[in-house]
Each structure stands twice: as C-alpha cells, then as structure tokens.
C-alpha cells in the first residue's frame, strides 16, 4: 500500500514551508511498505540551530493554517540539531547539516520511492512578516 494522498499533500505543504525558510536538500520518502506505522518521512537540512528551529516552526505554522494539523510529538527542540515532528501519517525531520551528514537517513530509505514535492526551482524569498522574529511578535 502506498502513502495516502492526504499525507502527500500535507508533506508538500511542509516542504514548501521549509523551502520558504531556506532549508536545503528537502526530500520525502514513501516508507509505508517497510514501516507500516507511518506513510512518509520528510527530511530537510538547515545551516545552524536557529534555522533548524525556524524551519520547524514554519512547518508547524503552515500545516496548522492549511489543514489544522498539529504534531502528536515534537522532539529535539532544546538541542536544535534534529527536530522531529510526528504527525502520525507522516514524520518531518529538520536536521542541522552536520547531523544530517552524520546520520545519513537517506541511506536507510534509499530503496523507498521518492515523493515528488513540487518545489520551485529557486527558494522562496523570506519576507519581514515571515521571519522568526515577526512570528514571535
């Protein structure tokens, strides 16, 4: 059984949010066959701890605004090296560049189908109203 279309649609919203905050190497794998407990793993990288948190925050904000989704679990917010957002049907990993390189999650899921995220060629510009400082205000 393949990932549900609703999960794919939600992950695309998350990927666009990550892209907007200048996350890099955004990929998503359909892990429904080998795991059975979730449909999709999405992975995105960020240059530093502040950006890891900003990307995770933007993803949460956009998924709540678009679909009223909230993560069941949030892990890694204190260290901000690897933030995991568990939405049940899909899991988002926002990782510091060095952490992602060390754990190399893609190696684990290389046999799973990639999900087309429909991201724009160029990263979306961050506007003043979208910055982490403006979100907290």
Automatic annotation (TrEMBL):
Any single GO BP term: cytosolic ribosome assembly
Superkingdom assignment: Bacteria
Database matches in InterPro entries: Iojap/RsfS/C7orf30 (IPR004394), NT_sf (IPR043519)
Compartment annotation: Cytoplasm
Broad class of the protein's primary localization: cytoplasm
Alphabetically ordered keywords of this record: Cytoplasm, Repressor, Translation regulation
Pfam families for the chain: RsfS (PF02410)
Cellular component, GO annotation: cytoplasm
A single MF term (Gene Ontology): ribosomal large subunit binding
Self-association and partners: Interacts with ribosomal protein uL14 (rplN).
Protein family: Belongs to the Iojap/RsfS family.
NCBIfam families attached to this UniProt entry: rsfS_iojap_ybeB (TIGR00090)
Physiological role: Functions as a ribosomal silencing factor. Interacts with ribosomal protein uL14 (rplN), blocking formation of intersubunit bridge B8. Prevents association of the 30S and 50S ribosomal subunits and the formation of functional ribosomes, thus repressing translation.
Protein name: Ribosomal silencing factor RsfS
Gene name of the encoded protein: rsfS
């Amino acid at each position: 059984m393949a990932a549900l279309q609703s999960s794919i649609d939600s992950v695309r919203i998350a990927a666009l949010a990550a892209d907007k905050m200048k996350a890099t190497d955004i990929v998503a794998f359909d892990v429904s066959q080998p795991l059975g407990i979730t449909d999709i793993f999405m992975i995105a990288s960020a240059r530093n701890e502040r950006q890891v948190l900003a990307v995770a925050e933007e993803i949460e904000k956009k998924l709540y605004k678009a679909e009223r989704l909230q993560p069941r679990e949030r892990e890694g917010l204190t260290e901000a090296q690897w933030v995991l957002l568990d939405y049940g049907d899909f899991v988002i990993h926002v990782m510091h560049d060095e952490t992602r390189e060390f754990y190399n999650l893609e190696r684990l899921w290389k046999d799973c189908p990639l999900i087309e995220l429909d991201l724009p060629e160029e990263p979306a510009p961050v506007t003043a109203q979208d910055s982490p400082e403006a979100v907290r205000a």
